[in-house]
Amino acid sequence: MKVLISLAAGGLASVIAKVADSEAKWQIGVGIFVGGCILILQLLGDLINQVRDFKAVLPQHNAQTQETVVRSFAQISEATKFYSEMERLPSDGVAALATSAVEVVSRGPDIMRRFAEELMRRLAVDMEALKSGGVDCAGENHDWLLTLTNCAMNSIDTTSTLSLVDRDFWNSGPADRYLQAQREAIARGVTVRRLFLVADSADLNDDLRQLSQEQEELGIETRVVVRTQLPQNVRRGLVDEFIVFDKATCYEIEQDQLHVNTSTRVRAQEEHVRLRTQRFAELWDAGVPTQTVGTPAGE
Hints:
Number of domains: 3
Distance between the termini: 120 Å
Structural class: alpha+beta
Radius of gyration: 42 Å
Order of helices and strands: HHHHEHEHHEHEHEEEHE
CATH architecture of the largest domain: 2-Layer Sandwich
Strand order of the largest sheet: 1-7-6-5-2-3-4-8
CATH topology of the largest domain: Endonuclease, Chain A
Number of strands: 8
Largest sheet: 8 strands, mixed
Shape: elongated
Helix content: 55-70%
CATH class of the largest domain: Alpha Beta
Number of helices: 10
Protein backbone atom coordinates (compact mmCIF):
# COMPACT_ATOMS: atom_id res chain seq x y z
CA MET A 1 0.00 0.00 0.00
CA LYS A 2 2.81 2.40 0.86
CA VAL A 3 4.47 1.66 -2.49
CA LEU A 4 1.19 2.36 -4.34
CA ILE A 5 0.86 5.68 -2.53
CA SER A 6 4.40 6.60 -3.55
CA LEU A 7 3.72 5.69 -7.20
CA ALA A 8 0.50 7.69 -7.18
CA ALA A 9 2.31 10.69 -5.76
CA GLY A 10 4.99 10.41 -8.42
CA GLY A 11 2.39 10.19 -11.20
CA LEU A 12 0.55 13.24 -9.88
CA ALA A 13 3.79 15.17 -9.74
CA SER A 14 4.50 14.28 -13.35
CA VAL A 15 1.12 15.61 -14.50
CA ILE A 16 1.43 18.83 -12.54
CA ALA A 17 4.95 19.38 -13.85
CA LYS A 18 3.56 19.62 -17.36
CA VAL A 19 1.09 22.39 -16.54
CA ALA A 20 2.70 24.32 -13.71
CA ASP A 21 5.31 27.10 -13.88
CA SER A 22 8.84 26.71 -12.54
CA GLU A 23 8.13 27.99 -9.00
CA ALA A 24 5.15 25.70 -8.66
CA LYS A 25 7.18 22.85 -9.96
CA TRP A 26 9.78 23.50 -7.29
CA GLN A 27 7.14 23.57 -4.54
CA ILE A 28 5.61 20.42 -5.86
CA GLY A 29 9.02 18.73 -5.94
CA VAL A 30 9.61 19.69 -2.31
CA GLY A 31 6.23 18.24 -1.39
CA ILE A 32 6.95 15.05 -3.21
CA PHE A 33 10.35 14.83 -1.58
CA VAL A 34 8.83 15.30 1.88
CA GLY A 35 6.17 12.72 1.10
CA GLY A 36 8.85 10.29 -0.05
CA CYS A 37 10.78 10.88 3.15
CA ILE A 38 7.65 10.23 5.19
CA LEU A 39 7.10 7.04 3.25
CA ILE A 40 10.66 5.95 3.88
CA LEU A 41 10.30 6.73 7.57
CA GLN A 42 7.11 4.67 7.71
CA LEU A 43 8.86 1.79 6.03
CA LEU A 44 11.78 2.10 8.44
CA GLY A 45 9.34 2.18 11.35
CA ASP A 46 7.66 -0.97 10.13
CA LEU A 47 11.05 -2.59 9.67
CA ILE A 48 12.09 -1.64 13.20
CA ASN A 49 8.84 -3.07 14.58
CA GLN A 50 9.37 -6.30 12.68
CA VAL A 51 12.96 -6.56 13.93
CA ARG A 52 11.73 -5.92 17.50
CA ASP A 53 9.04 -8.59 17.16
CA PHE A 54 11.57 -11.03 15.70
CA LYS A 55 14.00 -10.38 18.56
CA ALA A 56 11.18 -10.98 21.02
CA VAL A 57 10.33 -14.41 19.64
CA LEU A 58 13.92 -15.38 18.76
CA PRO A 59 14.83 -16.75 22.24
CA GLN A 60 11.71 -18.91 22.26
CA HIS A 61 12.43 -20.09 18.75
CA ASN A 62 16.05 -20.83 19.65
CA ALA A 63 14.94 -22.74 22.75
CA GLN A 64 12.49 -24.81 20.71
CA THR A 65 15.12 -25.47 18.06
CA GLN A 66 17.70 -26.42 20.70
CA GLU A 67 15.19 -28.71 22.42
CA THR A 68 14.39 -30.39 19.11
CA VAL A 69 18.07 -30.85 18.30
CA VAL A 70 18.85 -32.22 21.78
CA ARG A 71 15.88 -34.59 21.62
CA SER A 72 16.93 -35.79 18.18
CA PHE A 73 20.50 -36.41 19.31
CA ALA A 74 19.22 -38.17 22.41
CA GLN A 75 17.14 -40.47 20.23
CA ILE A 76 20.13 -41.09 17.99
CA SER A 77 22.30 -41.78 21.04
CA GLU A 78 19.69 -44.16 22.46
CA ALA A 79 19.41 -45.98 19.15
CA THR A 80 23.20 -46.20 18.87
CA LYS A 81 23.43 -47.55 22.41
CA PHE A 82 20.65 -50.03 21.66
CA TYR A 83 22.35 -51.37 18.55
CA SER A 84 25.70 -51.45 20.37
CA GLU A 85 24.13 -53.60 23.10
CA MET A 86 22.40 -55.75 20.50
CA GLU A 87 25.79 -56.61 19.01
CA ARG A 88 26.65 -58.40 22.27
CA LEU A 89 23.74 -60.82 21.78
CA PRO A 90 23.82 -63.86 19.50
CA SER A 91 23.03 -62.37 16.11
CA ASP A 92 21.24 -65.44 14.80
CA GLY A 93 18.94 -65.70 17.83
CA VAL A 94 18.01 -62.01 17.86
CA ALA A 95 17.42 -61.94 14.11
CA ALA A 96 15.32 -65.11 14.23
CA LEU A 97 13.25 -63.72 17.11
CA ALA A 98 12.59 -60.43 15.35
CA THR A 99 11.79 -62.05 12.00
CA SER A 100 9.50 -64.67 13.49
CA ALA A 101 7.70 -62.13 15.68
CA VAL A 102 7.03 -59.81 12.75
CA GLU A 103 5.78 -62.68 10.60
CA VAL A 104 3.44 -64.07 13.26
CA VAL A 105 2.08 -60.66 14.24
CA SER A 106 1.51 -59.55 10.64
CA ARG A 107 0.27 -62.78 9.06
CA GLY A 108 -0.97 -65.18 11.72
CA PRO A 109 -4.56 -65.52 12.96
CA ASP A 110 -5.65 -63.17 15.72
CA ILE A 111 -5.23 -65.68 18.52
CA MET A 112 -1.69 -66.54 17.39
CA ARG A 113 -0.89 -62.84 17.15
CA ARG A 114 -2.12 -62.28 20.71
CA PHE A 115 -0.24 -65.39 21.86
CA ALA A 116 2.99 -64.13 20.27
CA GLU A 117 2.52 -60.70 21.82
CA GLU A 118 1.99 -62.28 25.24
CA LEU A 119 5.16 -64.37 24.87
CA MET A 120 7.15 -61.28 23.94
CA ARG A 121 5.63 -59.36 26.85
CA ARG A 122 6.61 -62.13 29.28
CA LEU A 123 10.10 -62.25 27.82
CA ALA A 124 10.43 -58.49 28.26
CA VAL A 125 9.22 -58.77 31.88
CA ASP A 126 11.71 -61.58 32.60
CA MET A 127 14.58 -59.65 31.02
CA GLU A 128 13.69 -56.57 33.06
CA ALA A 129 13.63 -58.69 36.24
CA LEU A 130 16.98 -60.29 35.41
CA LYS A 131 18.57 -56.83 35.34
CA SER A 132 18.24 -56.83 39.13
CA GLY A 133 19.65 -60.36 39.36
CA GLY A 134 16.54 -62.50 39.73
CA VAL A 135 13.30 -63.68 38.20
CA ASP A 136 10.27 -65.53 39.60
CA CYS A 137 7.31 -67.50 38.29
CA ALA A 138 4.41 -69.47 39.72
CA GLY A 139 4.70 -73.25 39.90
CA GLU A 140 7.70 -75.22 38.69
CA ASN A 141 9.41 -73.98 35.55
CA HIS A 142 11.04 -76.94 33.78
CA ASP A 143 12.12 -74.76 30.84
CA TRP A 144 14.29 -72.62 33.11
CA LEU A 145 15.75 -75.75 34.70
CA LEU A 146 16.66 -77.32 31.36
CA THR A 147 18.00 -74.05 29.96
CA LEU A 148 20.26 -73.45 32.95
CA THR A 149 21.48 -77.05 32.76
CA ASN A 150 22.29 -76.60 29.08
CA CYS A 151 24.14 -73.36 29.85
CA ALA A 152 26.27 -74.71 32.72
CA MET A 153 29.97 -74.98 31.93
CA ASN A 154 31.61 -75.93 35.24
CA SER A 155 29.38 -77.37 37.95
CA ILE A 156 25.81 -78.22 38.92
CA ASP A 157 25.21 -78.74 42.65
CA THR A 158 21.64 -79.81 43.34
CA THR A 159 19.60 -80.86 46.35
CA SER A 160 16.57 -83.09 45.97
CA THR A 161 13.98 -83.84 48.64
CA LEU A 162 12.40 -87.28 48.54
CA SER A 163 8.79 -86.88 49.57
CA LEU A 164 6.15 -88.99 47.86
CA VAL A 165 5.64 -86.21 45.30
CA ASP A 166 9.37 -85.94 44.56
CA ARG A 167 9.73 -89.70 44.10
CA ASP A 168 7.00 -89.56 41.44
CA PHE A 169 8.94 -86.85 39.62
CA TRP A 170 11.85 -89.18 38.86
CA ASN A 171 9.47 -91.44 36.93
CA SER A 172 8.11 -88.61 34.77
CA GLY A 173 8.92 -87.22 31.33
CA PRO A 174 10.36 -83.94 32.67
CA ALA A 175 12.77 -85.98 34.82
CA ASP A 176 13.95 -87.94 31.77
CA ARG A 177 14.65 -84.71 29.89
CA TYR A 178 16.38 -83.24 32.94
CA LEU A 179 18.65 -86.25 33.38
CA GLN A 180 19.41 -86.26 29.66
CA ALA A 181 20.44 -82.61 29.89
CA GLN A 182 22.67 -83.42 32.85
CA ARG A 183 24.22 -86.32 30.97
CA GLU A 184 25.05 -83.94 28.11
CA ALA A 185 26.49 -81.46 30.61
CA ILE A 186 28.74 -84.15 32.08
CA ALA A 187 29.89 -85.04 28.56
CA ARG A 188 31.18 -81.49 28.09
CA GLY A 189 33.07 -81.57 31.41
CA VAL A 190 30.52 -80.28 33.92
CA THR A 191 30.65 -81.80 37.42
CA VAL A 192 27.15 -82.75 38.60
CA ARG A 193 26.48 -83.53 42.26
CA ARG A 194 23.07 -84.47 43.67
CA LEU A 195 22.33 -84.49 47.39
CA PHE A 196 19.19 -86.40 48.37
CA LEU A 197 17.42 -85.00 51.44
CA VAL A 198 15.27 -87.47 53.38
CA ALA A 199 13.19 -86.87 56.48
CA ASP A 200 14.38 -89.83 58.56
CA SER A 201 16.29 -93.08 58.33
CA ALA A 202 13.18 -95.02 57.23
CA ASP A 203 13.59 -93.40 53.79
CA LEU A 204 16.99 -95.04 53.31
CA ASN A 205 15.52 -97.93 51.36
CA ASP A 206 16.12 -99.90 48.19
CA ASP A 207 14.16 -97.40 46.08
CA LEU A 208 16.57 -94.64 47.03
CA ARG A 209 19.60 -96.81 46.39
CA GLN A 210 18.25 -97.83 42.99
CA LEU A 211 17.48 -94.20 42.08
CA SER A 212 20.94 -93.05 43.05
CA GLN A 213 22.58 -95.95 41.24
CA GLU A 214 20.77 -95.08 38.01
CA GLN A 215 21.98 -91.51 38.28
CA GLU A 216 25.53 -92.50 39.17
CA GLU A 217 25.61 -94.59 36.02
CA LEU A 218 25.02 -91.33 34.16
CA GLY A 219 28.08 -89.81 35.86
CA ILE A 220 26.24 -87.93 38.61
CA GLU A 221 27.84 -87.99 42.07
CA THR A 222 25.24 -88.68 44.77
CA ARG A 223 25.02 -88.48 48.53
CA VAL A 224 22.17 -88.63 51.02
CA VAL A 225 21.40 -86.63 54.15
CA VAL A 226 18.93 -87.60 56.86
CA ARG A 227 17.56 -84.35 58.21
CA THR A 228 17.03 -85.65 61.74
CA GLN A 229 20.62 -86.90 61.86
CA LEU A 230 22.24 -83.65 60.80
CA PRO A 231 24.67 -82.09 63.29
CA GLN A 232 23.05 -79.35 65.32
CA ASN A 233 25.11 -76.59 63.74
CA VAL A 234 24.13 -77.77 60.23
CA ARG A 235 20.48 -78.50 61.01
CA ARG A 236 19.70 -74.83 61.66
CA GLY A 237 20.26 -73.80 58.04
CA LEU A 238 18.23 -74.11 54.87
CA VAL A 239 17.30 -77.64 53.85
CA ASP A 240 14.89 -76.89 50.97
CA GLU A 241 15.54 -77.67 47.32
CA PHE A 242 17.93 -75.49 45.37
CA ILE A 243 20.42 -75.89 42.53
CA VAL A 244 23.61 -73.88 42.08
CA PHE A 245 24.89 -73.56 38.50
CA ASP A 246 28.56 -72.71 37.98
CA LYS A 247 28.57 -71.25 41.52
CA ALA A 248 27.03 -68.16 39.95
CA THR A 249 23.26 -68.70 39.64
CA CYS A 250 20.67 -70.42 41.83
CA TYR A 251 17.49 -72.17 40.78
CA GLU A 252 15.14 -72.59 43.73
CA ILE A 253 11.75 -74.21 44.24
CA GLU A 254 9.37 -73.29 47.02
CA GLN A 255 6.95 -75.92 48.31
CA ASP A 256 3.85 -75.76 50.46
CA GLN A 257 3.07 -78.03 53.39
CA LEU A 258 1.82 -80.72 51.02
CA HIS A 259 5.18 -80.68 49.19
CA VAL A 260 3.55 -79.16 46.10
CA ASN A 261 5.87 -76.87 44.14
CA THR A 262 4.27 -73.43 44.36
CA SER A 263 6.90 -71.16 42.82
CA THR A 264 10.27 -71.06 41.08
CA ARG A 265 12.90 -68.37 41.35
CA VAL A 266 16.28 -67.80 39.74
CA ARG A 267 18.80 -65.68 41.63
CA ALA A 268 22.22 -64.39 40.60
CA GLN A 269 22.97 -61.89 43.37
CA GLU A 270 26.51 -62.58 44.53
CA GLU A 271 25.75 -62.78 48.26
CA HIS A 272 22.70 -64.99 47.71
CA VAL A 273 24.68 -67.41 45.55
CA ARG A 274 27.55 -67.42 48.02
CA LEU A 275 25.25 -68.46 50.86
CA ARG A 276 23.65 -71.22 48.78
CA THR A 277 27.06 -72.50 47.68
CA GLN A 278 28.25 -72.52 51.27
CA ARG A 279 25.08 -74.28 52.40
CA PHE A 280 25.45 -77.00 49.77
CA ALA A 281 29.05 -77.58 50.85
CA GLU A 282 27.92 -78.01 54.48
CA LEU A 283 25.19 -80.48 53.56
CA TRP A 284 27.43 -82.37 51.14
CA ASP A 285 30.09 -82.80 53.80
CA ALA A 286 27.42 -84.04 56.23
CA GLY A 287 26.05 -86.55 53.71
CA VAL A 288 27.20 -90.08 52.94
CA PRO A 289 27.44 -91.96 49.62
CA THR A 290 23.99 -93.32 48.88
CA GLN A 291 25.13 -96.84 48.09
CA THR A 292 26.85 -97.20 51.48
CA VAL A 293 23.83 -96.49 53.67
CA GLY A 294 22.53 -99.50 55.61
CA THR A 295 19.05 -100.94 55.50
CA PRO A 296 16.95 -99.74 58.43
CA ALA A 297 16.33 -102.29 61.18
CA GLY A 298 13.21 -104.38 60.79
CA GLU A 299 13.37 -104.65 56.99
